[in-house]
């Protein structure tokens, strides 16, 4: 009998031999099939890991995301899907991959499909107080959702990267953006892009030598520009005012070629493979307290949940899809660049990690994004090519994505070096996919809450049950009732959330203007949507320090130090022949510090002085000596040095105050000397720098003496005009019918404070800049009344052609500082009407984020404010909105300008009952002004008690009307002011 021998020496039956041969054949065929699939279609993955826990242990939990774990199965279940099931899933994957994915450049699918029908409305979320939430996404097609995402999407970010998450059912469109995705800069052919008739060099030799200079002129042209500047100064001195269209004024305009503009990055699309006809209890929400966006809905008995967040600690954004039953996640993931028309776009896929690289058309800068698709479940199958990943039959799918460019803060001045981001992004992704989702979720939430939970505002709002879009509609129609107070407080916390998401250490300053539009990549130079430093950029940070988000100001300081200062020193030398540094009102990531060619707004040399106020405030709020010595003071000294060198006499070389000349009021009017805004900014900068010298111990005695001498005679920019107004110009030529949006001449009221520390009574020895005319310095009361008169005539900032969000926000803040809650809130309402009600996500990207951030700062000012170190005012603004005072309210975690942390609570009507002061950073005195305290007749001193928390020590304090003066607070101690009936 013919038998083969087994390994044990025993003959093997022929039937067993045939079986072994058959199994070997099947194995070979399988390997060949897998190899062929990998070669032709991408990467094929079969997940065959067994689950050891029982299926009934799997729980779908909507509320507790961090506790979610991979689903499990019965131990006696089948060992994975059958080969037939795998083949079926593989075939489905192949069929799906054959269909081109949606992309940012072609947003519509071949046949538009509708989102499913929504039935059984979801109730409000119960897991947080501060959130945006909605019961529906949209009934629009996928093409239309691409254009509507700016109004409806949730903004998530980790500082460097920001994304807009849509919330759709069949197509989850995630628009990704990176703050350094900019056209222009070094490497751009500036002559080729020059506008007609601007005098640009055109010879071949000059074209080869043409470089990006940040708006500065070549060295050889510097004497000509300085000569033109001097001629204009003389003309201003002779005439008092020069018309903006005079040729000599045009000679001051700069070169904005190569300025560029911020560009969109691309899109990540997650498509449901199996379409749903009807969904129940759909709800999408953005939890401001955790920084997590969630979409939940039900189909039949299945519950689906998607979570989104962008982690600052891990430098990655995350999306997780899961369901209440295993094998229920079926999606296609694709990544697309907004710059495919450059012809440089490349797409790759390595182990289900999609990659996208492209080069920007205008400057050849590298942009790259990666998304890793990780899956959970023993029965799922995924198939991929270099453009997409299809995952079918999984229990959960988690996407990790990150993006970057070749731009770096250290490598972009003076010449741009394109540093390939690939290795950096790969390292981020390797760490992300190697971690546990639950740990990453908790790390993100803890990091976010460390900042977000530091400040609380309770305006007596009732618990909000209305979806955000319905809340906005009711507010617009005047039917919102007591939930109006919730909307106001929500705006404040939303603004704080946006700061955390958009401005973190290591990132660029917050822009928030043009990064979301997909209709771009033209590379046009457009300073109007760059960093606007005559109001927008600064307003973005008004809310930061006082509400515990000083860390978010760090990118602004870094930007000033590493980009604006070195280029701004060139501008000072070339244009003015001066030391120090400056910048004009428009800049970009390439450090554009020279003037631009914009009409009316091209010239504002005091922009640097305004920026330095944020550096000084960063020191005041943090009381960080080393920050002041190593960073803030150096910025301030350089900016002050420029003005010590360039201020001129108003009338002649020996008499009259020192002023800025030429000087422009932003956006309107003629060219004069010493406009109010310029003078106020310079005066404040010089004073702050002199205070800083006392702290750091300046050894440059010549500079200190020159600074002191200049400060003695510099005009403060505070004049009262003929119709009782605070003058915008040194000449009394204000038009009472002017409705211009800018309030530069009221800077000394807010965000400055100069007005409040003027003398409260006139003195014969106190003479203003018009001493040769016999004028006396106006008193504090006269200046405040003049500011009020000016603001009444300026209107609410909603004139046609000048309807900007920042204009209303600034008015609200100034009215709050002036103590008028009625008019401050009218400005708030005007802002909501024009920039909130038509945007369900509260984001008016066309106008920028500065308006929302600024109006939120104004509302905080209406409740509590600290104008200067040693001062805090609580509910001192009169006529606050009724809905804010109908119930008890409170504020917790407000920071003062000397580092104290103040909390307070009040009763119905705004009667303050308790104030708590934690002297966290320094000792000293503090004047606490309380609106409801009044004088002795209203609240006798016997009703006011001051104690040191958890101590029996007697606290030294005094009483001055409505002010409680804490004479000597000790660092690290908490003081409590109690006020009885």
Automatic annotation (TrEMBL):
<feature type="domain" description="Glycosyl hydrolase family 95 catalytic">
    <location>
        <begin position="442"/>
        <end position="862"/>
    </location>
</feature>
<protein>
    <recommendedName>
        <fullName>Alpha-L-fucosidase</fullName>
    </recommendedName>
</protein>
<feature type="domain" description="Glycosyl hydrolase family 95 N-terminal">
    <location>
        <begin position="144"/>
        <end position="406"/>
    </location>
</feature>
<dbReference type="GO" id="GO:0004560">
    <property type="term" value="F:alpha-L-fucosidase activity"/>
</dbReference>
<dbReference type="GO" id="GO:0005975">
    <property type="term" value="P:carbohydrate metabolic process"/>
</dbReference>
<feature type="region of interest" description="Disordered">
    <location>
        <begin position="55"/>
        <end position="83"/>
    </location>
</feature>
<feature type="region of interest" description="Disordered">
    <location>
        <begin position="759"/>
        <end position="781"/>
    </location>
</feature>
<dbReference type="InterPro" id="IPR027414">
    <property type="entry name" value="GH95_N_dom"/>
</dbReference>
<keyword id="KW-0472">Membrane</keyword>
<dbReference type="InterPro" id="IPR054363">
    <property type="entry name" value="GH95_cat"/>
</dbReference>
<feature type="region of interest" description="Disordered">
    <location>
        <begin position="180"/>
        <end position="207"/>
    </location>
</feature>
<feature type="compositionally biased region" description="Polar residues">
    <location>
        <begin position="60"/>
        <end position="69"/>
    </location>
</feature>
<dbReference type="Pfam" id="PF22124">
    <property type="entry name" value="Glyco_hydro_95_cat"/>
</dbReference>
<dbReference type="InterPro" id="IPR008928">
    <property type="entry name" value="6-hairpin_glycosidase_sf"/>
</dbReference>
<keyword id="KW-0812">Transmembrane</keyword>
<dbReference type="InterPro" id="IPR012341">
    <property type="entry name" value="6hp_glycosidase-like_sf"/>
</dbReference>
<dbReference type="Pfam" id="PF14498">
    <property type="entry name" value="Glyco_hyd_65N_2"/>
</dbReference>
<feature type="transmembrane region" description="Helical">
    <location>
        <begin position="21"/>
        <end position="39"/>
    </location>
</feature>
<keyword id="KW-1133">Transmembrane helix</keyword>
């Amino acid at each position: 009998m013919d038998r083969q021998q087994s390994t044990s020496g025993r003959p093997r039956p022929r039937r067993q031999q045939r079986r072994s041969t058959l199994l070997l054949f099947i194995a070979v065929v399988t390997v060949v099939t897998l190899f062929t699939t990998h070669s032709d279609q991408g990467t094929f993955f079969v997940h065959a890991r067994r689950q050891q826990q029982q299926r009934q242990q799997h729980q779908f939990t909507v509320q507790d995301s961090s506790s979610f774990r991979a689903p499990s199965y019965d131990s006696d279940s089948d060992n994975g899907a059958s080969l037939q099931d795998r083949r079926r899933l593989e075939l489905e994957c192949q069929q799906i991959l054959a269909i081109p994915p949606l992309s940012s450049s072609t947003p519509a699918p071949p046949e538009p499909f509708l989102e499913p029908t929504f039935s059984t409305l979801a109730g409000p979320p119960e897991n947080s107080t501060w959130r945006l939430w909605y019961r529906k996404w949209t009934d629009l097609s996928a093409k239309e959702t691409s254009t509507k995402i700016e109004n409806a999407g949730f903004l998530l970010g980790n500082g460097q990267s920001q994304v807009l998450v849509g919330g759709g059912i069949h197509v989850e469109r995630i628009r990704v953006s990176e703050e350094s995705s900019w056209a222009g800069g070094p490497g751009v052919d500036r002559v080729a892009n020059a506008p007609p008739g601007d005098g640009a060099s055109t010879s071949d030799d000059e074209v080869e030598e043409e470089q990006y200079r940040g708006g500065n002129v070549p060295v050889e042209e510097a004497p000509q520009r300085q000569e033109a500047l001097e001629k204009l100064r003389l003309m201003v001195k002779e005439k008092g005012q020069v018309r903006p269209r005079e040729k000599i004024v045009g000679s001051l305009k700069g070169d904005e070629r190569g300025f560029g503009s911020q560009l969109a990055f691309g899109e990540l699309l997650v498509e449901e493979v199996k379409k749903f006809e009807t969904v129940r209890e759909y709800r999408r929400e953005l939890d401001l307290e955790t920084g997590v966006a969630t979409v939940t809905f039900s189909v039949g008995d299945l519950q689906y949940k998607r979570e989104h967040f962008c982690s600052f600690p891990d430098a990655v954004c995350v999306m997780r899809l899961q369901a209440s039953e295993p094998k229920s996640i079926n999606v296609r993931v694709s990544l697309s660049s907004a710059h495919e028309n450059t012809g440089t776009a490349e797409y790759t896929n390595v182990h289900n990690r999609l990659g996208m690289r492209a080069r920007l058309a205008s400057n050849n800068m590298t942009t790259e994004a990666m998304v890793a698709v990780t899956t959970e479940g023993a029965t799922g199958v995924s198939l991929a090519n270099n453009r997409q990943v299809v995952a079918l039959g999984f229990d959960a799918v988690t996407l990790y994505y990150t993006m970057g460019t070749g731009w770096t803060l250290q490598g972009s001045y003076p010449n741009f070096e394109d540093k390939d981001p690939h290795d950096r992004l790969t390292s981020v992704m390797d760490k992300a996919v190697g971690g546990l989702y639950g740990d990453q979720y908790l790390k993100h939430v803890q990091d976010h809450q460390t900042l977000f939970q530091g400040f609380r505002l309770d305006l007596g709002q009732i618990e909000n049950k209305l979806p955000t879009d319905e809340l906005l509609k009711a507010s617009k129609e005047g039917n919102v009732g007591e939930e109006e107070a919730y909307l106001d407080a929500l705006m404040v916390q939303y603004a704080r959330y946006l700061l955390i998401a958009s401005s973190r250490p290591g990132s660029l300053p917050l822009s928030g203007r043009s990064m979301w539009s997909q209709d771009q990549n033209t590379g046009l130079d457009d300073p109007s949507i760059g960093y606007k430093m005559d109001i927008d950029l600064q307003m973005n940070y008004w809310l930061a320090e006082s509400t515990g988000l000083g860390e978010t100001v760090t990118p602004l300081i870094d930007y000033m130090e590493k980009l604006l200062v070195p280029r701004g020193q060139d501008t000072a030398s070339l244009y003015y022949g001066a030391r120090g540094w400056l910048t004009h009102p428009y800049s970009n990531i390439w450090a554009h510090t020279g003037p631009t060619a914009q009409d009316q707004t091209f010239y504002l040399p005091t922009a640097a002085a305004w920026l330095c106020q944020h550096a000084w405030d960063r020191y005041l709020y943090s009381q960080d000596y080393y920050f002041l010595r190593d960073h803030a003071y150096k910025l301030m000294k350089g900016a002050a040095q420029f003005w010590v060198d360039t201020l001129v006499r108003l009338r002649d070389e020996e008499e009259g105050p020192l002023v800025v000349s030429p000087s422009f009021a932003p956006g309107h009017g003629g060219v004069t000397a010493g406009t109010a805004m310029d003078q106020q900014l310079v005066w404040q900068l010089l004073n702050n720098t002199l205070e800083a010298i006392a702290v750091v111990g300046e050894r440059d005695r010549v500079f200190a003496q020159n600074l002191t001498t200049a400060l003695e005679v510099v005009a403060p920019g505070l004049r009262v005009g003929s119709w009782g107004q605070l003058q915008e110009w040194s000449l009394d030529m204000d038009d009472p019918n002017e409705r211009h949006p800018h309030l530069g001449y009221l800077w000394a009221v807010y965000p400055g404070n100069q007005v409040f520390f003027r003398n409260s009574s006139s003195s014969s020895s106190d003479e203003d800049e018009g001493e040769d005319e016999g004028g006396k310095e106006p008193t504090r009361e006269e200046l405040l009344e003049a500011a009020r008169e000016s603001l009444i005539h300026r209107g609410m900032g909603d004139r046609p052609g000048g309807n900007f969000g920042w204009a209303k926000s600034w008015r609200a803040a100034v009215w709050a500082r002036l103590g008028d809650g009625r008019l401050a809130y009218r400005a708030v309402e005007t802002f909501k009407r024009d920039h909130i009600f038509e945007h369900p996500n509260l984001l008016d990207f066309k106008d920028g984020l500065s308006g929302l951030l600024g109006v939120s700062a104004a509302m905080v000012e209406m409740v509590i404010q600290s104008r200067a170190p040693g001062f805090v005012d609580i509910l001192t603004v009169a006529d606050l909105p009724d809905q804010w005072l109908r119930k008890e309210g409170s504020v917790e975690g407000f920071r003062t300008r000397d580092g104290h942390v103040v909390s307070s609570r009040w009763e119905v009507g705004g009667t303050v009952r308790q104030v708590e002061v934690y002297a966290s950073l320094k000792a000293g005195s503090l004047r606490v002004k309380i609106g409801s305290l009044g004088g002795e007749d209203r609240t006798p001193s016997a009703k006011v008690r001051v104690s040191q928390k958890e101590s029996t020590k007697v606290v030294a304090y005094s009483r001055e009307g409505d002010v409680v003066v804490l004479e000597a607070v000790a660092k690290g101690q908490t003081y409590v002011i109690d006020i009885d009936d």
